[in-house]
């Protein structure tokens, strides 16, 4: 009986402990909830949706250009949103992205293009030009000049492009700055959204896979297409992860190929040996006849 009461007491104490922990966790969750001021800030993925390529912006040279002009080269496009007067986040995004581009073998303007669009309508082409010069200097790839475009535009067109890509941002009056997410948005040659990579860390391998995916294999080598077959994008991990099933299928196919090649070599060798034996028998009969 004492043992039963002891066990009951322990269970009761543990139960109160669990309830207390749950209440504390709920309290933390309530305290850590996103403030109302940030409502609407974030990214709503719109995979498979085309952007409005008839929108016009101003490039770093001060020329008005339509988005459609960046989709005439049959190359995939990487789109990112920034505002150049951002006190920290946008600089970190562009620095991280530039490092990824520097570590890649591919170069903007050759295998793909990049559109860096300011979502602040007050920023000018002169500022965009200075920013482009800064990041191209860090990139140190001369050909990228023709493939990395820094655009500014009107509030109407900025909001239209942001809405089409699911990019939600907001001006915070109290701090006099924008609240905004960070991501790379990958587009195919027609302006259709094919992939998002969120955050500020962009592994070159993931960027390359996303470009191969956006181009449907037209960009990259056969090895790139094989790798893309074996990998899939995991939204939770925000990265491309290896697919065991497809890897096993590929391994099985390679094994079958090796076996077939081995059998072909064996068959050709046996045929050659048979011809040699027949030839040797013919020569022997000839000698006997003589």
Mean pLDDT: 78
Helix content: 40-55%
What is the CA-CA span between the terminal residues?
115 Å
The low-pLDDT segments are 1-31, 244-254
Text of the CATH class of one domain = Alpha Beta
Which range does the strand content fall in? Answer: 15-25%
Annotated CATH architecture of one domain: 3-Layer(aba) Sandwich
What class would the helix/strand composition place it in?
alpha+beta
User: What is the strand tally?
Assistant: 13
The SSE string, one letter per element, is HEEEEHEHEHEEEEEHHEEH
**SS element count, helices:** 7
Which topology of one domain does CATH recognise?
Glutaredoxin
Overall outline: elongated
As a whole number of angstroms, the C-alpha radius of gyration is: 31 Å
Could you characterize the architecture of this molecule?
The structure is a single chain. The protein has 290 residues and is an alpha+beta fold. The chain has a domain at 42-221: Glutaredoxin (3-Layer(aba) Sandwich). The protein is 47% helix and 18% strand. The longest helix is centred in the C-terminal third of the chain and has 46 residues, at 244-289. The termini are far apart. The relative contact order is 0.12. The model is unreliable at 1-31 and 244-254 (pLDDT under 50).
């Amino acid at each position: 009986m004492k043992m039963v009461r002891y066990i009951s007491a322990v269970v009761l104490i543990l139960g109160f402990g669990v309830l207390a922990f749950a209440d504390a966790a709920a309290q933390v969750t309530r305290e850590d909830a996103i403030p109302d001021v940030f409502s609407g800030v974030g990214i709503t993925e719109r995979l498979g949706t085309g952007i409005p390529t008839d929108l016009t912006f101003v490039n770093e040279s001060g020329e008005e250009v339509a988005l459609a002009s960046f989709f005439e080269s049959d190359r995939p496009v990487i789109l990112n949103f920034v505002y150049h007067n951002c006190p920290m986040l946008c600089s970190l995004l562009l620095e991280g992205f530039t490092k990824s581009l520097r570590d890649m073998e591919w170069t903007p303007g050759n295998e793909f293009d990049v559109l860096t669009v300011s979502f602040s309508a007050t920023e000018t082409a002169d500022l965009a030009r200075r920013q482009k010069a800064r990041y191209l200097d860090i990139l140190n790839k001369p050909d990228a000049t023709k493939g990395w475009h820094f655009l500014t535009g009107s509030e109407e067109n900025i909001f239209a492009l942001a809405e089409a890509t699911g990019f939600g941002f907001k001006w915070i009056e109290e701090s006099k700055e924008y609240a905004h997410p960070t991501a790379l948005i990958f587009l195919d040659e027609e302006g259709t959204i094919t992939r998002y990579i969120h955050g500020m860390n962009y592994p070159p391998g993931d960027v390359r896979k996303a470009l191969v995916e956006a181009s449907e294999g037209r960009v990259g080598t056969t090895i790139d297409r094989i790798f893309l077959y074996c990998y899939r994008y995991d939204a939770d991990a925000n990265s491309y992860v290896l697919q065991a099933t497809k890897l096993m299928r590929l391994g099985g196919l390679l094994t079958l190929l090796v076996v077939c090649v081995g059998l072909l070599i064996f068959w050709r060798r046996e045929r050659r040996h048979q011809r040699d034996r027949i030839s040797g028998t013919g020569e022997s009969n000839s000698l006997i006849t003589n």
